[in-house]
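PROTEIN–LIGAND DATA SHEET

This sheet pairs a single protein chain with one bound small molecule, zinc ion, given as SMILES. Inputs appear in the order they were entered. The predicted three-dimensional arrangement of chain and ligand is reported afterwards as a token string under its own label.
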Amino acid sequence: MGEAKNRGTFEQRRKEAIMQGRGQPQVQLTEKDTIEIKCKPCGGELFDMAYRLRTFPALSPKNPTGKDQLVKIETHICRGCGHEFGKSFFQDGKADE
Ligand SMILES: [Zn+2]
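PREDICTION REPORTED AS:
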């Protein structure tokens, strides 16, 4: 009985950890499990990784360092047409399509 109770607690902790993005089980992905993302404007399938550079200014009340901080935002550029994915990172946390 005590054993079952402990297991329940462990399960709950594991679920909480997964919900918080920790302790996620490793999933072996194959090509079939994934869906290809194509560039909307041109249908391109190849993307270069790029960074948008921003400054987190010293004047921001959220900046604990009191110094300007460089912020790199990873984004992807279509090789075919230059369309950028992920522009709306700060607006809704989702990448553009
Ligand atoms: Zn494109």
